[in-house]
Amino acid sequence: MKIDKLVAYYKENTVEAGCDEAGRGCLAGPVFAAAVILPPDFENEWLNDSKKLTEKQRYFLRPIIEKEALAWAVEMVTNRVIDEINILNASFLAMNRAVQKLRIVPEHLLIDGNRFRPQTNIPFTCMIKGDGRFYSIAAASVLAKTYRDDFMLNAHKEFPNYQWDKNKGYPTKKHRAAIKEFGTTKYHRMSFRLLDEQLSLDFGRMV
Questions:
Q1: End-to-end Cα spacing for the chain
Q2: Could you give the count of Cα atoms lying within 13 Å of 81 in the half-sphere of its Cβ?
């Protein structure tokens, strides 16, 4: 099934990087962000906001994005840093790290969302639901999501009780039930509300 076509760029004749993050609402794991610079004539009839794609479609698109992009980068901020600076600031930090890692310095940034706190002097424009409007942000959303999923699949091998192979750290009922039964892990975000009920966690059972 085809999707509505996205737009190649916001500013014409400008080296533009799309930026997006993945994992803000999770109870466990890092937040990942990606920055992608695509050719101005880039087109792909399947690329869209990663949330609108299946896991198979995301992993199919990832090597295409990496091959055709002029530059791309993925960075993360750990759950421990998230607890220190809060998830919003951690998301900004991850995006800034990805931008600074690009081998081509962009002239303009397209940021998914309505807020950004830059660590460079590169001009930027925030785009609400930009991952469903612009190819570069959609590409960044796919990279951020798939690389984060890879991380959580590896973490699942270490802590299989939490079913991160299925929920990827998001607050599902089974994930919360596992936290209640087995306690927290080194990957959990302790500043988040990990249980539905107002119950105290047994941090002595932290694994």
A1: 44
A2: 14
Same domain, 67 and 112: yes
Q: Are 29 and 136 in contact (CB under 8 A)?
A: no
Do residues 42 and 116 both lie within one domain? yes
Q: Check: pTM over 0.85? Answer yes or no.
A: yes
pLDDT digits (tens, 9 = 90+) for 95-129: 999 999 999 999 999 999 999 999 999 999 999 99
Backbone angles phi, psi at 62, to 5 degrees: -55, -50
* Full residue range of the structural domain in which residue 28 is found: 16-150
**What tokens appear for 168 in the block?**
């990827």
188/110 same-domain check? no
Identify the pLDDT of residue 176: 95
DSSP state of 134: B
Which residue intervals of 1-134 are DSSP H helices? 55-68, 79-85, 87-101
Residue 44 maps to a domain: yes
140 touches 20 (CB < 8 A):
yes
Rounded Cα gap, residues 93 and 75, in angstroms: 9
- Phi and psi of 148, rounded to 5°? -70, -40
| Same domain, residue pair 139 and 175 | no
